[in-house]
Amino acid sequence: MRVRFLGHACFELSGGGHRVVIDPFLSGNPQAKARPEELQVEAVLLTHGHGDHLGDTVSIAKRTGAVVVAAFELASYCQRQGCKVHPMHIGGSHAFPFGRVKLTPAFHGSGIEGPRGVESGGMPAGILITMDGVTVYHAGDTALFGDMELLGRRHAIDVALLPIGDNFTMGPDDAVYAAQLLKPRIVVPMHYNTFDLIRQDPHAFARRVEELGIRCRVLEPGESLEV
């Protein structure tokens, strides 16, 4: 599998002839190294409804015919915008042509901003996706929580994509502890340095993770990791 970082919390996963994108915040993202019209994917996976994650979902899905996979309320919102959707919810999993997706808990919010104010996006989620024999855990925007240890016991995680920005999500200290609980083969930090409020040193974080005996790879926007 190829894990390509597109900036903030957006990743494109490709393998076995399939390609999906997670949380495609590209337009208006100062870190983005791809334009939404460049993506050719068969699914858009969403962790929650905040603008820096929902992003360009609607335009990508309508242009490509990609299915939007998200928690029920967020999927319903995308369906009202004209997208093809597959609703799920926390703890549920489903086998798609591209791989198996499971939604996991995340401690955050999911309000969708619109002309009528903020509407509910349902519960936020993390995403476990197994594709081309590789399991990736995208934690979404979340606080540290103890059941990350359970996720690590129940699933052999190859790559954990963990937020480190603090303020809205885990900061580096909690993300290091999350890595201990999850026990992935590789950690990739995300959700940092897009804005001044979430500025962090990802290389300092990586050194601390590697002291645990876990490989950590800092990806610049546009860079890829082969797993």
What's this, in brief?
The protein is of the alpha/beta class and 227 residues long.
Explained architecture:
By secondary structure, the protein is α/β, with parallel strands linked by helices. The chain has a single domain (2-218), classed as Metallo-beta-lactamase, Chain A (4-Layer Sandwich). The chain is built from 6 helices and 16 strands. The protein has helices at 51-54, 57-64, 72-80, 148-154, 172-182, 202-210, and strands spanning 2-7, 10-15, 18-22, 43-45, 67-71, 84-88, 93-96, 99-105, 112-114, 117-119, 125-131, 134-138, 159-163, 186-190, 215-216, 224-226. The protein has a 7-stranded mixed sheet with strand order 6-5-4-3-2-1-16, covered by helices on one side. It has a 7-stranded mixed sheet with strand order 7-8-11-12-13-14-15. Helix 4 packs parallel to helix 5 and helix 5 (172-182) packs parallel to helix 6 (202-210). It is globular and about 45 Å long. The termini are close together.
